[in-house]
From TrEMBL, chain A:
Family, per entry: Belongs to the binding-protein-dependent transport system permease family.
Residue span(s) of domain ABC transmembrane type-1: 98-312
Subcellular location per the Swiss-Prot or TrEMBL entry: Cell membrane
KW Thylakoid (keyword) present: no
Protein name: ABC transporter permease
Gene3D superfamilies linked to this entry: MetI-like
Cited InterPro entries: MetI-like (IPR000515), MetI-like_sf (IPR035906), UgpAE/MalFG_permease (IPR050809)
One Pfam family in the UniProt entry: BPD_transp_1
Gene Ontology BP annotations: transmembrane transport
One GO CC term, this protein: plasma membrane
From TrEMBL, chain B:
TM region positions: 21-46, 89-110, 122-142, 154-172, 193-215, 269-289
Superkingdom assignment: Bacteria
UniProt source species: Salipaludibacillus neizhouensis
Subcellular location: Cell membrane
One Pfam family of this chain: BPD_transp_1
Name of protein: Sugar ABC transporter permease
Length: 325, 303
């Protein structure tokens, strides 16, 4: 609109020309929509679904600033400003839950991110494609096991009467209560996550490597480059763009710990390490029906996630010229 | 082929001693990885046919008294696992169908460059990747819509993901434009072009998206846990959660048992066999779809 005003100040001829143009544009748009209405029909189920299940909850977030009661509804509930947020941040649990979330996901990122890359570099050295395919087939398998089963297996293997303790009794005189000791929780969580996901996560790197030019390796070999030199100067360079993109995604989702697994692995005893923001939201918000407080804690998490995603995207954009969005 | 042979030749000429040592270490490490992945799986599979704790106390026992299929018998007698299985087929199937139809249609529309308002629609979808309302507002919405304790609470929310729309769009964009142009010149309508030309070409992407959607929903438990109350509606994963995590034995499985120690023994056995029953279908099927998974991951990275 301001553009129109400024241009109209320059010359009246321009204005006269613009009015019919605009109308023409409008009729053209209508004509276009009439002709291509089917495309808009195609879009409508997805738009409607996202509107209902994604955007309405975004509006529903206002209850984080209210004292929501189901009887009164969202509109009629009283505004309380930021009191739920300050309550959360001043509660004695806040620091512990916040740090649990950060630590758990930081460990998962630091250890979980490089392993699929290393695995792919190792697989890339397997010359016989039949063997390589079979190894891949096996290491993908855990990806298809549900989180509930993984949780169940962890409890079974680590129970005081389980196989791991049976091995450990050789060195120790009594069984270790892995699942009731907060100190072990993070290791158990991260290690089982790697067991389940690293193989499948390597797919993308393996594919990127197999698409790279084999002549690069030939040339380097003729120049006398050693295996490690070739891996570093060729394979790792090939993987760099993929790594950048996946790293953005991983850091952007760093606060989104696998709370579904964390919740399954929680015992009363390991809670000091296993309570993360989302399991806390579930317990306070849903189980204890403290709706507004739960929504506030959830919003707190969403905002941190948003800032992380934007920041990391900016950083990588500056460094590499690679960007997701 | 000749390329591989060629590089092999160079390799044998040029490989130094240290390189060969490294390749050997690589092989050993990879074998170790394979062992680490398979041992827990085999342990559960074997354990499901053995009396509880035999693997810990005796290893793989050859004593026939130690072997049993009691765990499996009890699972099939009780029926809650089977009912969970059927519910899961229903939920994962419904979720997949909704997800595919919605995202393929939207992906196709957004793949057309001339679509007026395309950018606005993309922003509308992409925004949901950055921000969401969170657990509580979503739950309140589902409750407000009256979907609590209905299969729709599992099937509808989350069926449309931006990611799937973008994958479908990328795929359609890569199809040659001439196909559409030719059909248009022949007087075909947009709808007929989509049905007759685009859809048959879209089979691979449909299959890949369907595979991921189905498996994701099949293995999920959290939404079912918060939205479903009736035990008769429970999907497989919730039944498993009761058995594996909460240590609750299904009543039909212990109908004949009173002694506490015996119940303990049976509940241990049922854990193993229920893991096998629940996980085996996917583990047997996925090798047949391996190339689609690889394709799917690669399409995802193209974006």
């Amino acid at each position: 609109m301001p553009k129109d005003l400024s241009s109209s100040g320059n010359s009246s001829v321009n204005v006269l020309n613009q009015i019919p143009k605009k109308n023409k544009k409008k009729t053209e748009l209508l004509k276009y929509i009439r002709k291509n209405w089917i495309l808009y029909l195609f879009l409508s189920p997805a738009v409607l679904s996202v509107l209902i299940f994604n955007y309405i909850p975004m509006y529903g977030v206002v209850i984080a600033f209210k004292d929501f009661s189901p009887v009164r509804g969202i509109m009629a509930s009283e505004w309380v400003g930021f009191s739920h947020f300050t309550n959360f941040m001043q509660s004695p649990n806040f620091l512990r839950i916040f740090m649990n979330t950060v630590q758990l996901s930081a460990y998962e990122l630091l250890i979980g991110f490089p392993i699929p890359i290393i695995l792919a570099l190792m697989l890339n050295q397997v010359r016989r494609s039949g063997i390589k395919k079979n190894i891949q087939l096996i290491i993908y398998a855990p990806h298809f096991i549900s989180v509930v089963v993984i949780g169940g297996m962890i409890f079974m293997f680590l129970s005081p009467a389980g196989p791991l303790n049976a091995i450990l009794t050789v060195f120790l005189d009594r069984p270790v209560a892995f699942m009731s000791e907060p100190n072990y929780f993070r290791t158990i969580f991260v290690a089982s996550g790697i067991w389940q996901a690293a193989g499948f996560a390597s797919i993308i790197y393996v594919a990127a490597l197999s698409n790279s030019d084999p002549q690069l390796h030939d040339a380097a070999m003729i120049d006398g480059a050693s295996l490690l030199q070739r891996i570093w100067h060729i394979d790792v360079q090939v993987l760099k763009p993929v790594m950048a993109v996946l790293f953005i995604l991983a850091v952007g989702g760093i606060m989104a710990v696998g709370f579904e697994k964390a919740y399954l692995l929680q015992t009363d005893m390991n809670l000091p390490a296993s309570e993360v923001i989302e399991t806390y939201v579930y317990k306070r918000g849903l189980q204890a029906a403290d709706w507004s407080f739960g929504a506030a804690v959830g919003l707190f998490l969403s905002i941190i996630n948003l800032m992380l995603l934007i920041t990391v995207n900016q950083v990588v954009k500056k460094l590499k010229g690679e960007s997701l969005f | 082929m000749s390329k591989i042979a060629h590089s092999k030749k160079i390799q044998t000429i040029n490989n130094s001693k240290t390189d060969q040592l490294l390749l050997l270490i690589n092989k050993i490490l990879l074998s170790l990885v394979v062992v680490i992945v398979t041992v827990p799986l085999l342990y559960v599979l074997l354990g499901s046919f053995l009396q509880p704790n035999i693997l810990v106390s005796h290893g793989i026992s050859l004593n026939p008294d130690h072997w049993t299929i009691d765990g499996y018998v009890r699972i099939f007698q009780d029926g809650s696992i089977m009912r969970g299985f059927l519910n899961s087929v229903l939920y994962a199937g419904g979720f997949t169908i909704v997800s595919i139809i919605f995202s393929i249609l939207a992906g196709y529309a957004l793949s057309i460059d001339e679509l007026v308002g395309k950018k606005a629609f993309m922003i509308f979808f992409l925004f949901t990747m950055f921000f969401n309302g969170g657990l509580i507002p979503t739950y309140l919405l589902i409750r407000e819509l009256g979907l609590i304790n209905t299969p729709w609470a599992i099937i509808l929310p989350g069926a449309v993901t931006v990611w799937n729309i973008i994958l479908a769009r990328t795929y359609f964009k890569a199809l040659p434009n001439e196909l559409k142009e030719a059909a248009r010149i022949d007087g075909a309508s947009d709808f007929m072009i989509f049905i007759k030309i685009i859809l048959p070409l879209a089979k691979p992407i449909i299959f890949v998206l369907a595979l991921f959607a189905f498996i994701g929903q099949w293995n999920a438990y959290f939404n079912a846990m918060i939205y479903l109350e009736d035990r008769s509606l429970y999907p497989l994963q919730l039944v498993l959660r009761e058995i594996l995590i909460q240590n609750e034995v299904q009543p039909g499985m212990i109908a004949d048992q009173l002694a506490r120690a015996e119940m303990q023994r049976i509940s241990e056995m049922i854990k193993y066999s229920s893991i096998v029953v629940a996980s085996l279908p996917l583990l047997i099927m996925y090798p047949f779809f391996q190339k689609y998974f690889e394709k799917g991951v690669m399409v995802g990275s193209l974006k």
